[in-house]
C-alpha cells in the first residue's frame, strides 16, 4: 500500500508544483526514508519554508538559504521533532524570518515568534492541528487542495505514535478528519507526494484498527507485557522497527485504557 521514489538529489531544489519547491535533507534512515522534505512555498505574503530540517546537514541549510531569497517571510513548523525543526534556530538567526509553530510546541530552550491555532489562516494556508504523532503536530492546507501533512500522513510508511507525546486516540481521530476533507494531493514530511489521498488514509486507519483488534485478540488469550504483545502482533526482527512497533502497541493500549477496554497491572495488560 506504500509508495517509493528514487533517491533524490541532495542540496538541490526541485519544483513539484507551481510555487512549491522541495529540498530533501541528507538524513536517510529507517524512520525518515530518504530524508526530511523541506518545502519552500510562494504565498500571497511572500516566500515561506515548511520544516527546514535537521541541524547536521550544512549543504541542505545553504540550499535553503539560496532558494528562500533575501527576505523570506516566515518559517512554518509541522512539529518539534529534530529532523524537522533542528536547523530552525540557525535559520532564524541567519534570515530574521519569524518562526510559526503550534501553541502546543514544547516550552523548552526555543520559543517560536508566533503561535498557531487550529483553523487559523497564515499566508493563505489554513492551519490544521493534527495531534497524534506529536502533540503539537500541524498540517497546512492551501485553497487549491494541496495539504502539507508533515508526519501525520506519509506515503512511504505509516507514522510511529509514541507515548507520552504521541497519542493513538488523537491520531486516529485526525486521520478520520482528513478522510472527511476533500484535499486532492498531500505533500508529506518524508517520501513522495500522494495523489488521491482519501483512499490511502482510509487504509491507514483500517490498518490501525486491525492492529488494535490483534492486540485485543492476544489479550483475550493471555494478559501480557507491551514487549510480548508487540513481538506477537508485529513479528519484527529488526531492533529499530521492533522498537517502533512496541511504541505503537503502547499507544494502542493507552487508547484502549481510555476507553475502559483494558486495564494495567504493573507491566502486564489485560482485558477488562
Automatic annotation (TrEMBL):
<dbReference type="InterPro" id="IPR041516">
    <property type="entry name" value="LACTB2_WH"/>
</dbReference>
<keyword id="KW-0614">Plasmid</keyword>
<protein>
    <submittedName>
        <fullName>Beta-lactamase</fullName>
        <ecNumber>3.-.-.-</ecNumber>
    </submittedName>
</protein>
<dbReference type="InterPro" id="IPR001279">
    <property type="entry name" value="Metallo-B-lactamas"/>
</dbReference>
<dbReference type="GO" id="GO:0016787">
    <property type="term" value="F:hydrolase activity"/>
</dbReference>
<dbReference type="Pfam" id="PF00753">
    <property type="entry name" value="Lactamase_B"/>
</dbReference>
<dbReference type="InterPro" id="IPR036866">
    <property type="entry name" value="RibonucZ/Hydroxyglut_hydro"/>
</dbReference>
<dbReference type="InterPro" id="IPR036388">
    <property type="entry name" value="WH-like_DNA-bd_sf"/>
</dbReference>
<keyword id="KW-0378">Hydrolase</keyword>
<feature type="domain" description="Metallo-beta-lactamase">
    <location>
        <begin position="35"/>
        <end position="190"/>
    </location>
</feature>
<dbReference type="Pfam" id="PF17778">
    <property type="entry name" value="WHD_BLACT"/>
</dbReference>
<dbReference type="InterPro" id="IPR050662">
    <property type="entry name" value="Sec-metab_biosynth-thioest"/>
</dbReference>
